[in-house]
Structure formats: C-alpha cells, structure tokens
C-alpha cells in the first residue's frame, strides 16, 4: 500500500503515454505547439507496462491513461491489452479528445475499458474551432454520441474560459445532460498553457460557475460523491445526466488526494502544481530489478506537499509547462 507523508492513501495512477496532441487548445499551448519529447525519450510500451505492474504491486488500483492525446500513440491498444492481465488492477480508464477513438470503440468495449473522460470545451462548432485551433468538432461530437450509445460511462470535461465559452455552458447542459446519462464537469482554468500567458487569479471560479448555472434552473440537487472525488456533482430535476464542478485552480480537494502522475517521459509528479520529483525512465532502462523503481516511487510520495498551494510554493517555473506534457 502506498501512503504519503500526510497519511493519504495513493491508489490512483494517471499514466501519460505521449505528450503529443493533434489539437492546439489555446489554454494548453501556444498556436505553434511546444517542444515535444523525442520518441527515444518516451517510455516504451514494455516500460509503461512494467512500471504499471510494479505500481499495482505497490497498491495502485486505478490507472487512467492520459496524454497529450493517448490515441496519438499507435501502439496504445497493445498496452491496454496487457494492463487487463493485471488481476489486482480494478479499473482502467482513458482521457481523450475523441478525435481518433472511433476505430477502437469495439475493442475497448470488449476489454471492458468503458470509463472515458472526453475533453470538450464547447458545444458550438465555431467556439470549438477557436479554442482548439482545429476543425474537428463533427468528429468529436459523433464519437461522443457513439460512446454513449455503446454503453460507455462518459464524463465530459469542459474548461471554463472567460470571454471564450461561457455562452456554451447552458447549451452543453441542455444538449447532453438533458437527454443522455452523461456527466459534464466544468473545470476552473489552470495556468499550464506552455507559457502562452500567465495569471494569478481567475474570474470564473467554482462558486461563480455554480451561480451562473443555478440562475438558469429552479431545481438542482447536490449528489453524493466519493470521498476522493475532485468534482462536486449535481443533477437538474428531470434530466438524465448530471453536471459537476471541479475547483482545479481553487484547490480545495487536496486533503483527499489519492493520485500520482507519471509523464510520458517517466517523470513522477505528485501534484499538478509541483515540479517533477523523480524520473523513472533511466532506472527502468538501467536496472532489471524492480526494487530501485519501487524505492523512487516511495521517495516521491514521502515528500508530497500538503496541498496545491504548498506544492506551488516549493516549485519553480511550473507555469511554463503545458497540460499536454504533464499528463493533463
């Protein structure tokens, strides 16, 4: 079992398989992109599986596959098939922009990997195009509907961006949660945008997001959530789905944090607002033994910040990072 220095149980790994993405969302990176890692510096499928197996042995029970865009990795399904052989691993899920997922939907369903977090920051095509700097809305929306129709448990992640997509908040609730058993989660914007701009406060925090939604509906009921949930969840009377709000910039859920991140290049990140504390790639490549890897993981969680604010104080230059490089 993995227990950090604040007596928090760590059983959830966010594992990035690539830093590359085929969208250029303006809150994530500059229009020209970022300096992506050389392919030789990315963990191989064998290394990703070996690391996963080690960490499951240490107590990880949930693995979320992230990126970049995970399906940019052409051998991703090989990893997913192998992860399904780990008996102690209780859940595998994926975060994706859904541009490339269509051909994999049947096998994902067969494998039982049916929990999908889908990034969608607009329900109007013109807004989507402006934010992502690409014209992929039709593909993303059709794949979203296919996932729902095939029985996947879909959560839509919508980052609330001042002066960009506020007008899409109510329409996405109406278009999705009214008709489908899907959860739309509204996230506060975070400053991990590859250095394209900086900020110390946000206008649309969790309270303002809720107030805005509540001003449009009379009957909203708060739902019970897991202790480790980062979102506060609600259902509008008569609607099939739900919506949630994630205070990702306010950071008021740190006390129950149960997660650890490993980037596609092997950096261990104990908090989104923390500088990478360890790198496992060279150890995985240099040592056939698992103990050195296990020790590095234990060392990382034994020095975790109490919360995101302490992590930020202890870190340097974290806001030059892009979400795509730190395993969003």
Automatic annotation (TrEMBL):
The family database entries (PROSITE patterns) matched by this protein are listed as:
MOAA_NIFB_PQQE, RADICAL_SAM
Q: Which UniProt keywords apply?
A: 4Fe-4S, GTP-binding, Iron, Iron-sulfur, Lyase, Metal-binding, Molybdenum cofactor biosynthesis, Nucleotide-binding, S-adenosyl-L-methionine
> Pfam families given for it?
Mob_synth_C, Radical_SAM
Q: Per its Swiss-Prot or TrEMBL entry, what cofactor is needed?
A: [4Fe-4S] cluster
Q: Which reaction does it catalyse?
A: GTP + AH2 + S-adenosyl-L-methionine = (8S)-3',8-cyclo-7,8-dihydroguanosine 5'-triphosphate + 5'-deoxyadenosine + L-methionine + A + H(+)
Source species? Gramella jeungdoensis
Q: E.C. number, please?
A: 4.1.99.22
Name of the gene encoding the protein in the UniProt record: moaA
The molecule here is called: GTP 3',8-cyclase
Q: Which InterPro entries match?
A: Aldolase_TIM, Elp3/MiaA/NifB-like_rSAM, MoaA, MoaA-like, MoaA_NifB_PqqE_Fe-S-bd_CS, MoaA_twitch, MoCo_biosynth_MoaA/MoaC, rSAM
Report the residue ranges that make up the Radical SAM core domain in this protein: 5-227
Give any GO molecular function from the UniProt entry: GTP 3',8'-cyclase activity
Xref: CDD domains: Radical_SAM, Twitch_MoaA
Q: What class of enzyme is it?
A: lyase
